[in-house]
Amino acid sequence: MRLNYLLLILFTSASSFWACSKGGAPVVNPAPSNLTVTATVSADNSGNVNFVASATNATTYDYDFGNGVFQTVPSGTVMYKYPASGNYKVNVIAKSAGGQTISKSIDVAVTVAQSLIWSDEFDVPGAPNPAKWNYDLGAGGWGNQEVQFYTSRTDNAIVSNGTLKIIAKKENFSGSAYTSARLLTKDKFSFKYGKIEVRAKMPVGAGTWPAAWMLGANINTVNWPNCGEIDIVEHKGSDVNKIYGTLHFPGNFGGNAVGGTRIITGATTEFHVYSCEWTALSIKFFVDGTQYFSFANNNTLPFNQNFFVLLNLAMGGTFGGPVDAGLTSATYEVDYVRVYQ
């Protein structure tokens, strides 16, 4: 009796794993087949996409949404909200109970309407808004061998007639030959992914080095360049009208940074819009809406965290070069800074 009982248990257990094919041969957990994947993009530009995956003999579905995000979906149906516009290659892997797989990829174009989340229009005369800006103070340019001393005086940073004016002055100040200002939103505002626009007019004079840029908010913990740096725009007064967009990160920083340039007209006589579009997949640089450089972002880089904004006018240094001895004053004028998500 005990032997018959054991045989019954073994037969029952085996029958749950084995099935008979049409010809009578045993089949173990049939592999998934006939995988179909559809995507319905929401028409309201919200970024929502409804995915439906279906396959014969599949018990679960692994989604790669094409932007570094993965999700396991037992039913095969999922709604995913993309944080940014883009063309995404979505890959779905259907799995059977026995672990066999089949995969399929589809291309999905998503448009996400962005809204303004932070800005400074510089429309209140006086010192820059203390609710939005702090100051970096001191000399040396943090290792860049610059010749200015950064102050928080309105002599060097003031809002008037609807623009912020960062003014470099030739004067002996605490051992430095020039004064200027470096404003930053650190501890007041930071963001992860989106679009930033800076409308600005560059200063005149060899040795001027204006910039609008961003640093990783974790800089106090990991230091530079581990925190990452995104230079939205830089300009050299000795090379008028050449615009730089640059990225610094471990292995690529300082003279080994990666970026692009564009020649424009009227950099020092007219306002231009310098912008950067930043997602988990890419960082793109523009002047007046024209893209001139694109960089492929990924999850191994420091460009997937919050960054804060900086505006400054340096003098001389490793990038600015020698300052014109006759230059007594230079003004970097910023009309607005706007951040969209």
What keywords describe this structure?
single chain; 341 residues; mainly beta; Immunoglobulin-like; Jelly Rolls; 2 domains; eleven-stranded mixed sheet; seven-stranded antiparallel sheet; 3 helices; 7% helix; elongated; disordered N terminus
Secondary structure elements and pairings:
Layout: H1 2-17, E1 18-20, E2 26-28, E3 33-41, E4 48-56, E5 60-64, E6 70-73, E7 77-81, E8 86-95, E9 101-110, E10 116-120, E11 134-135, E12 138-139, E13 148-150, E14 157-160, E15 163-173, E16 176-180, E17 182-184, E18 194-201, E19 208-216, H2 219-222, E20 229-235, E21 242-248, E22 258-263, E23 272-278, E24 282-287, E25 290-296, E26 307-315, H3 317-320, E27 329-340
Task: Describe this structure in a few short sentences.
With 341 residues, this protein is mainly β. It has helices spanning 2-17, 219-222, 317-320, and strands at 18-20, 26-28, 33-41, 48-56, 60-64, 70-73, 77-81, 86-95, 101-110, 116-120, 134-135, 138-139, 148-150, 157-160, 163-173, 176-180, 182-184, 194-201, 208-216, 229-235, 242-248, 258-263, 272-278, 282-287, 290-296, 307-315, 329-340.
